[in-house]
Write the structure tokens for this entry.
Amino acid sequence: MTVQPEASAPRRRGRPHPRGARRRADLLEAAIRLIGRHGLDAITHRAVAAEAGLPAASTSYYFRSKDELVDEALRTIAGREVALLRERRAALGEQAADLATIVESLATWIEEQIAPEGRVALLAQYHLQIESARRPAARTILEDWKTGTDQLTEAALAQLGARDVRTGAIILISAIDGLRLRLIASGHEPLDGAELRTVLRTLLRGLL
Amino acid sequence: MTVQPEASAPRRRGRPHPRGARRRADLLEAAIRLIGRHGLDAITHRAVAAEAGLPAASTSYYFRSKDELVDEALRTIAGREVALLRERRAALGEQAADLATIVESLATWIEEQIAPEGRVALLAQYHLQIESARRPAARTILEDWKTGTDQLTEAALAQLGARDVRTGAIILISAIDGLRLRLIASGHEPLDGAELRTVLRTLLRGLL
DNA sequence: CCGACACTTGGACGGTTGTCCAAGACATAC
DNA sequence: GTATGTCTTGGACAACCGTCCAAGTGTCGG
């Protein structure tokens, strides 16, 4: 995970043939699936290849190193998540701006993320944050992700007419971040859907 | 990290001699240092032994398995943190209950945790939470830690006369959790001491 | 002083890992 | 058809891992 700036070609010289691009994508997909199911350190050349149904040497051929593989998988997850954030932000513009709507929107968003299918991205994000604490190089992957989240949050708060949008956004993002972590760490049990909405309503009301 | 309930004796039969207890403690201390510096997966028998200045076989002698070593190291960190929480809570009782005091108290607490020395515990906590999302067995270590945090937070909010102490505590804990993560993940840069206090003041005021 | 038992430790074990190589399969340009 | 390159892959390699063992050292009750 040494965070190489550019996605790179197969190990050998010359420009890549479009033929191999498919396999490369399959391997990345397999890696993402593994991260979701068993975490970052379940990623090994052989495990990823097996998950993709390909021979063991294929991961070595398509990625210069394991670091590059992991790095690119994380980057892919981040990219998808940023796209989702942009979607949400666009949808926000067409909605009513009342508190109830925003609360509901936030709640379903959180629920999607902590659901088994959405969890990959969430866990990847936390992995990256922890990693960033120790190895600043990992931060580059998080940057787009962070600004995407910031923009969405600030837009929502502005629409609600919050007092201090900047401070409010920090609070809201942090709270949601901590809330999600709490939820997945304890198996959802501490908070049902209604309570989640109460929490969000109380939180948002305090920022107006 | 299979989470064994009881701290156990050396690998061999019979009750342990007090002579070896020291070495065991040294090994745990070395493991904690390594977790702080390089993360959970930097823990290997050989690395821990080397960090403690002991021969490689010593870790195998004093811990039934690597899981037991890691598990016990995490438990030790958690125990210390719980003690700190209790201290803080006791100190809270003797303080004035105004908002400014609580804000200052929270701010310095957070600053202590994100400082290089306090960071071990913080990172360990996040590691455990992520781990708990995937392996419920890891939750047992977090339990005391969580109730300690809950109690401290609820006590502070009650002293401030918050409207809904239960909901407020969830919000406050989550926000602090997310805030700390944000701070260590991006190298403190996004928020200086004054801003941190503004954020906390705004957050708390919203809960009253 | 001596037996018993915990401690200590160098070295070995089987397994897994990341990475690489050599040889063949395949595709395309001429 | 043939040359030139990529793609594909089984197998090898050294390094590292967790764990264990056997032989030696230390200590202490009797």
Observations:
- Residues 10, 12-14, 16-17, 19-20, 23, 54-58, 61 of chain A lie near DNA strand D (CB under 10 Å from a C1').
- The radius of gyration of chain A is 19 Å.
